[in-house]
Design brief:
alpha/beta, six-stranded mixed β-sheet, globular, four-stranded antiparallel β-sheet
């Protein structure tokens, strides 16, 4: 069913000396592409690592396909693909040697599909990681993550280092996978990519989830107000962040509060504009 939750994160907590992941909760449905956004240090990678068990959370619960990891770790991991914007393989071992080891962990590793991704991404598996550009390293990481028919992809900055054409090609792959029922949690700073492919967005700020909802609904909840001069103190009280531009100032206001600015030019903000203004509060 389309509404089946593939990933459920409930009250996830992780405390460090200078940072706390505080009661993080959201879910990803079958066939859904969810963008996970927030500035550097907001908690995106800590959340993903806690979900995958790469760090031990201090509290909360994570369920994959309705099960906790302790209830079927081997089965669950066969159905998850993970990729990040960097690569940690042996730098002087050939890519084909790395794949030879990796494929042993997946009973459903698809050699034909893997070769297709190598071709699509123009990857020469006779090369070594040390010989690859940052963008090609990301492509190789993704080729592996996409080659064992995962039902859930967890991607941490997967498009970092990719050129615009390669990013567009990757987004088309994501859309095709989602049409086939694959769910994708997609952490990124490139919010324009999310507008092209994501169904929903989860925004984390300072270790707390500020919003998790359909992407259109989220941006529709705000308007940009344009000012020729710096907003007054009374105007600032209604605004959710102010940014300066060459032509003056812009402020973010909730759509329900726009009556306070009837005489000012209003515009629909992009996802990036919403996030930037909220971070400038």
């Amino acid at each position: 069913m389309k509404n089946e939750n593939v990933l459920e994160i409930i009250g996830l907590c992780k405390k460090y000396p200078k940072f706390t992941l505080d009661n993080v909760s959201f879910s990803v449905k079958k066939g859904e592409i969810m963008g996970f956004i927030g500035r550097n240090g907001a908690g995106k990678t800590t959340t993903i690592k806690s979900v995958l068990g790469l760090v031990n959370p201090d509290g909360g619960e994570v369920r994959f396909f309705g099960k906790r990891m302790c209830e079927g770790e081997s089965e669950i991991k066969q159905q998850i693909g993970y990729a990040c914007g960097s690569i940690g393989y042996y730098p002087r071992r050939r890519l084909c040697d790395t794949v030879a080891v990796t494929r042993r962990f997946y009973g459903n590793f698809d050699e034909t599909l893997y070769k297709k991704h190598l071709s699509d991404f123009s990857i020469d598996e006779s090369k070594r990681p040390i010989e690859l550009s940052e963008g090609m390293k990301v492509k190789f990481n993704l080729a592996l993550a996409l080659s064992h028919h995962a039902k859930l992809l967890i991607l941490d900055e997967p498009t970092s280092g990719l050129d615009p054409v390669s990013r567009e090609e990757l987004l088309e792959i994501f859309l095709s996978l989602a049409n086939d029922g694959v769910s994708i949690l997609f952490s990124t700073h490139i919010t324009s990519d999310l507008v092209k492919c994501a169904d929903s967005v989860t925004y984390i700020k300072g270790g707390r989830i500020e919003a998790s909802m359909p992407i259109g609904e989220y941006t529709d909840g705000y308007r940009l107000v344009r000012f020729d001069t710096e907003p007054s103190e009374d105007e600032r009280r209604v605004l959710h962040g102010i940014c300066r531009s060459r032509d003056g100032f812009t402020g973010l206001v909730r759509t329900c509060d726009t009556e306070s600015f009837n005489e000012k030019p209003l515009a629909q903000p992009t996802l990036e504009e919403v996030m930037v203004h909220l971070e400038m509060q």
